[in-house]
Design goal:
The structure holds 2 protein chains of 2 kinds. Chain A is mainly β. Chain A is 0% helix and 48% strand. Classes of the chains: A mainly beta, B mainly beta.
């Protein structure tokens, strides 16, 4: 297994366009998380899935953002009508969930979005 | 509202010096993790602590979880240039969620 894979690594888009990012988690991991990180800050939680179910979504997340995880494998994060404030690194992480055990995240290398 | 505050924000030290990074909150955490992140990459997990007062060592790094599970520290002995990076703490609250909330980060630079 090559770890968590995110595509694309970089995306430049014009304001108002829609963008979609993909995350392929570690195959045996059943939890998948999306975070957003701006320069010099810690990652900010966006949403997470357990298998195909979206269990939690940040209240800070605008309705322009949507995430899916069909069949509990890869996930996509779509941003509609992008704004300059959406420019950030979008990080995906996966973990193995077993009851209340605390397994660490494995992060991907992220997708850097620049909205011009 | 930022649940986890890290201090210092920035730290620049000479190779061989010791340092401590702090992670503080008013919230109680069921577990707390430390990550290191290099530019252009995702964070990499260093350690998970779950018991109040727990101390874990990873080579020259020592992690401690506060007795009340509201704070943590990371101590690096004899820092090396390879320790340079952004250090992040992340806590999972006791509210039943499975997500971790990240701290503000400490950017460490170790000069040769």
């Amino acid at each position: 297994d090559t770890g968590v894979s995110q595509n694309p690594r970089h995306k430049i888009t014009k304001r108002g366009q829609n963008v979609t990012f993909r995350c392929d988690p570690i195959s045996e991991h059943n939890r998948l998380y999306w975070y957003r990180q701006t320069l010099g800050q810690g990652p900010e939680f966006l949403t997470y899935f357990q298998n195909e179910a979206q269990l939690e979504k940040s209240r800070l997340l605008s309705d322009r953002f949507s995430a899916e995880r069909p069949k509990g494998s890869f996930s996509t994060l779509e941003i509609q009508r992008t704004e300059q404030g959406d420019s950030a690194m979008y990080l995906c992480a996966s973990s193995l969930a077993s009851g209340t055990a605390n397994y660490g995240y494995t992060f991907g290398s992220g997708t850097r979005l620049t909205v011009v | 509202t930022q649940l986890l505050e890290q201090s210092p924000q920035f730290l620049s030290i000479q190779e061989g010096e010791n340092l401590t990074v702090y992670c503080n909150s008013s919230s109680v955490f069921s577990s707390l993790q430390w990550y290191r992140q290099e530019p252009g990459e995702g964070p990499v997990l260093l350690v998970t602590v779950v018991t109040g007062g727990e101390v874990k060592k990873l080579k020259r790094l020592t992690f401690q979880f506060g007795d009340a599970r509201k704070d943590s520290s990371l101590h690096i002995t004899a820092a090396q240039p390879g320790d340079t990076g952004l250090y992040l703490c992340a806590g999972r609250t006791t509210s039943g969620t499975y997500k971790y909330i990240f701290g503000t980060g400490t950017r460490l630079k170790v000069l040769a």
